[in-house]
Amino acid sequence: MLAAQRTAKQLTILAVFLIIVGGISFTSYRIVSPPQPTPTPPPEAGLEPVKVLSTRVFSVRDNDYDFMALVKNPNQTHGSREVDYVLNFIGPDGEVVKSIPGKFYILPGQTRYVIESPLVIDKPFVTHEFKITDVVWNKLNILASAEIDLVVLNADYSEVNSGGLFSRVEGVSTNNSDFDLSDAEIVIVVLNSVGEPIAVNKTSISTFLSRTNRSFEVRWPSPFIGNFNRLDVGIYTNVFENTNFLRRVGGQERFQEFNGE
């Protein structure tokens, strides 16, 4: 009887020892190799791909070109801090004469322009292709993104035809949000009477302070094909980059606190 009790006691002590050692080992493993975060769902898990609505190449002069793509994110809860693409120019024999990699960001439900300018292509080409190669999806709180309110108040087109300048656009934008922003991007698309793009340009605003207005200007040195009818102007900022938010007026909170990731 005593032997049986002694054996049972030894087994109990051994079990407790194994549990303690196992717990220590598991804790050590968790510290050395923490579990990987769950990745944002890919398109096949319920997200639609970024759509390319249209593309166009504009001949500026000689071997100088501008490129424009209009893209749309149909997803209402997810955007992307990084959409990778490649822009290929195809020669008469089907070969790629120039390949340009790039990336852009896009908000949930956003339709935006992507501009490559200036481009120098010194080999003849007959067509082009714009391919999205990868998308890093990020869930974004819609209420948070709505707090970033950038507006182009006015943009005026004028033809100069003097001193090496053909035309220009001058305008004013405003930052209606409570955030001081490191950078904002402005894209200008010139449209003809039937709504077709005939020229593009872009500029940026650095250190865009909260509740302030900033002027901008873009220029075209050479005439472009077609007649001006109206402008389509887009203003964008990267809400996925925490470093883009310099300060929140009235507090030091970072914008990413609103992020739904």
From TrEMBL:
**Could you name the domain of life of the organism this protein comes from?**
Bacteria
Bilayer-spanning residue ranges: 12-32
**Which keywords describe this protein according to UniProt?**
Membrane, Transmembrane, Transmembrane helix
Record protein name field? Uncharacterized protein
